[in-house]
Amino acid sequence: MLTSKSFLFLLGLTGTLPLAAQQRADYPIQAVPFTKVKLTDNFWQPRLQTNTSVTIPASFQRCEATNRVKNFEMAAAHSGKFATTYPFDDTDIYKTLEGASYSLSLEPDKKLEAYLDELIAKVGAAQEPDGYLYTARTIDPAHPHAWAGKERWEKERELSHELYNSGHLYEAAVAYYQATGKKNLLNIALKNADLVCATFGPGKRAVAPGHEIVEMGLVKLYRATGKPEYLSTAKFFIEQRGHYKGYDAKSTDVWRSGQYWQDDKPVVAQTEAVGHAVRAEYLYSAMADVAALTGDKALLAAVDTIWNNMVAKKMYVTGGTGAVGGGERFGDNYELPNATAYNETCASVADIYWNQRMFQLHGDAKYADIMEKVLYNGLISGVGLDGKSFFYSNAMQIKNSTGFKDTEPARSGWFDCSCCPTNLARLFPSLPGYVYGQKGRDIYVNLFVSGSTDLAVQNKAVRLTQQNNYPWQGDLKFTVNQAATSDFNLLVRIPGWARNEAMPSNLYTFATPSAEKVVIKVNGQPIDYQLRNGYAVLVRKWKKNDMVEVNLPMEVRTVVAHPRVLDDAGKVALQRGPVMYCAEWKDNDGRASNIIVPAGTTFTATPKPDVLNGITELSATVPVVKLDVANNSINTVRQTLTAIPYYAWANRGKGEMTVWFPQQVTDVELVTRPAKDVSQGK
Ligand code: FUB
Ligand code: ZN
Fold it and tell me: Does the keyword Ubl conjugation apply (predicted)?
């Protein structure tokens, strides 16, 4: 891994950088890079391994089999016909390249690197002499993709995705350079970025990019090279939103009003998370980046307001976002339907990026609480335990009676629009980078994952080791290891859920408060600690082998939604630690929609190492509604409810699933006729 200094040196830029770029403002808190954090746990480490050994190879294989690679070959030859469906299909290659690069940073692999070099050569060959790179036009410029427009960029505001492709290219290029020190992909990206900066900007062309991410990508190039144009162009793009004259401000249609593209108002006037959720959350991530790097207070205030809106009114209890399928978008405030929940996997990926940045800006544990919620629930539900089947949308409820038509009841290997599998492929290997943060002497622990990290605190090396069996057990152990005594503050996140807060807003609350307290010991002695912004602040002169133990209460909690979430009225969800649970047909006599969880139900939590790659299962005896068709009657019987982690559903065939349970028979949805074309199980 190269440091940014050596990187600047290699680019020959150190001598020419303006002072402002050398002493640039930045996030007050730095994430400890993923290359400095080694995971040894049983929850994430196997997933990262699967990503490397299954997901990434499968992604490349599918990019080849579905002609995504062929598009680059044809663009290089300037002959043929664009051979896939969408003009952004190039990005599946970029995203997989990015994930594979992170993987290489963690685990060198000469064969993989050679394959990436071959692929990069194909990408380079498809680039036009001035840097333009977009196979959907270059293959046959006289007949570009229907979404691309006759001329370059002419449909960028709508659907061409030219700048979206660029953004993913930049992210991949920085990742590959950092992993290998090779500039092959980086040079392609810089050439493209220089064209973009020469084309767009004050006094040049203006556009609010139709699908954000070029802004985040430009910021990464700016960090890597120090070239101010990359940052100013990112800022320029963000500031273009809300100025297009062709919308109808009064329209309630998300496209006609411009909301779909977050283009209905200038960003500093935006107050709600709106429109296409992936677009939106990439925009908000970029707003945080630019606010951090420029100190733009109005941008910061806007992104804070939007975050509050999303977390208070537009997020599922699993952390999923983007409730509405039509437009893959955020709904209105409190519009969080279960039977038609959309929750695109990419939106969860984007949400991790955004919340990490918010944490780095503010140092508040609430952002890591959201990251944790998304990671353990709505994000990893997106990939099957096999590592090669994926959900595009993440349902909250599957009802047999609807014939599985409303939501996606089973994962698929690939999609025509295959953004989600490749987005997961790039997120997983970078996960160790979300565990710790540092600001001078303050070391933040955001995620609880066994493993170790090597830090430098005031130029002294400190190794911090975590041992735990999270998320299944709440006893966490941290060992501090360094040669000499060291003065630093260890800030351990005390999750909201361990402080009687189901969500850092009133969108979800626990049905009953818990009296259990978080206990912290240092070298075996209980200590009083100060809680600052959700972190237990442990101030100490640390000695070699000092040990901190934190005990988080792992009771089963029932969660209720804000009364304005109509679909959850009279219902509860089940949570243990950070994990949300669901009931699936397989464990519950073939149904899930007939289960009632009355107030006061007592649950047992049982470790099941052999079930679904190792889970803790919840069970309780509860009433369930049964039909007696022969006697034309309905009654309730007592039955064991078995609940599994939400992320693990749909790994054993197709059938009913629910996250929210009615508390009384009045709230059971008594539509029970099974659709004819539906079979349960495999
Ligand atoms: O438009 C590119 C990607 O395709 C979006 O991020 C996804 O929502 C899907 O529409
Ligand atoms: Zn997606």
Answer: no
